[in-house]
Amino acid sequence: MATIGKSNNETRTNETPTSEKQTSQNSINQKSTSQATNTTISGTTPSSWSRRQMAIATMAGFAIVGLLLAVSACSKQSPKPALVGVSSPVSAPAAAALVTTPAVATSPAPNSLETNSPEPKKSASRKRPANVVYSDPNYGVSFLYPRKFALASGEKAQPQLAGLGDVPMNFVLPGGVAVATVSAPRGSYPGTDFASAFFNVNVNRSISEQECEHFAFVDTRTPDGEPVDAEKVKIGSTDMETTSTFTGSAMTQAATQYYHSYENGACYEYVLGLNTAGYGTKESIEPVERDQVFAKLEKILATVKVNPSGPEPVIETAGGAASGKE
Fold this sequence. Notes:
The protein is an alpha+beta fold. It contains five helices and 14 strands. It has helices spanning about 1-75, 90-100, 110-115, 210, 290-300, and strands spanning about 130-135, 140-145, 150-155, 160, 165, 175-185, 195-205, 230-235, 240-250, 250-265, 265-275, 305, 315, 320-325. The strands form four sheets. A seven-stranded antiparallel beta sheet has the order 3-6-7-11-10-9-8, covered by helices on one side.
């Protein structure tokens, strides 16, 4: 019995280390497993977190790049024109037409061209006046005459009649000076015996106002040849004395009308003359209407004006002759 007990005890004693070994081995295995598990968990957790951070960082990078591209595209685009409000809605066909219809380049209207770049004004040709002004400051006289008339002044101002010579002045005393003469052009009255017509101005500073009222030659058209006294007439606002003469031959005739006015210490003489020739030599030639010719010359006489200040003073030379500023 004692031996069995010992053997059992020994057996137990011997068994005990084995179980302890197993227990110890199991604990070692559990520790290894827990360490492995802990190692696996701790290794897995950092790896998973890094991937999430990388994904978030990648997405953030793409978002930033996209935002930069959008900002760059917006900055390159030109500003769009402001939309104008439309009172009525646009229908769908009209909107489609607006979208699909290609833009057609149109040239600006003529009015817009004129507004933006006005054309240079063309200088319009001015119509020349029918009458011309003659003015002589030396004698203070001026008048209007037709532009077609020929003007002569100074030494060439003494009028002449074809075939009859110079037309004499009609002052009662010498000292007259021819100032200006205007003559009608030849052919003014075609088909008639008209040869020439003129308007002449003479001035005499050597006679008085009473002497200016008389003429050296008077009208001799009366049947008995008796002279006719000068007539008083009013031309415009000026009182004048007038007379007329008639001279001629079978081929040439001359009719003249004289007018005198005394102003500013001088006697002004105005002569209206008509020269005719050729009547009766050809059947195609008709006598000119004398009244019509003289009416045209009288229009020039009506425009005569004498400067109230009068002509410049006469300068006596050493020889006693009077001289003026020509």
